[in-house]
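Q: Hi! Curious about what RNA polymerase sigma-70 region 2 domain-containing protein looks like structurally. Here's the sequence.
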Amino acid sequence: MALELDLIVQILLRERLRVAALASAITRDVHAADDIFQQVVLEALESRAQFRSPDHVLAWALRTARHRAVDCARSRRLHLLPDEILEALEARWAEPVGDSISDRGEALHGCLGQLTPSARELLQMRYAERLPVAEVAARLSRTVDAVYQMLSRIHRALRECVERKLPVGNGPPNAEGVRS
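A: Let's find out. The predicted structure is below.
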């Protein structure tokens, strides 16, 4: 029996980070990876009759994202990773990890929304636009050291916010490898 449409959508949204990460690793472009994820969702909805289990949806989504990402990379004339590396990436992302990745992603998303507009602008320039720190500093009329300090503070604030939002036992491992 085929899976319900709502369940397929829930699975894909829960696993968005994994699917997009695989696509991003191949295309080296987070925007292209987001586009690929959207294509995968649309294709999954059109092909929903073939899915028999949640694991099948994830495996199919990862394989489809990989193929779309390879096509995108080829069209941009990027040097592709060897097939054995792509197989290893796909296998690694297909491994069950519980809810920790999606929980951390949701927590991070919420924490990003709590940042000041200037902090979000700084992150946008540095990571979404991929500007070098020197260029970010010039745009903000700050020194390079000041930008690094601001980034460090933002990273620390995001880490602390995510850790507060996660249930006990789902935080990062400490020095002994034990989760908080």
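A: A fun detail: Residues 26 and 70 are 7 Å apart (CA to CA).
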